[in-house]
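Table S4 entry, ALG-2 interacting protein X/1.
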Amino acid sequence: MSFFRYHDQLAALEGKLPIAEGQITVNFKWYDAFEKNSVFSSTKKQTAPNGNFEKNCVLFNIAALHSHIGALQSGEDDEALKKAAKCYQQSVKESMGCIVFASQP
């Protein structure tokens, strides 16, 4: 998945270059995915010159994707239930990563 590769590249880049306000400034921009009637044209946006903000947004989207995949499972057999449970566990793991990044400056 390209989300994972992008997240890993951000983490590797931050180890070499300090991407933060007052250091190397890269403005990361995200649009509100939950704004009513705005699938791809949200007017609400958040911009931050912080690599942790970007990693947090990426993890949130990965968690949402895993949760959605889990919800799509039929639940009619053991394999589907196992896949759904694994997806939900992955989603929680990524959500916990969001909490960690949100707590960092």
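The chain has a mean pLDDT of 80.
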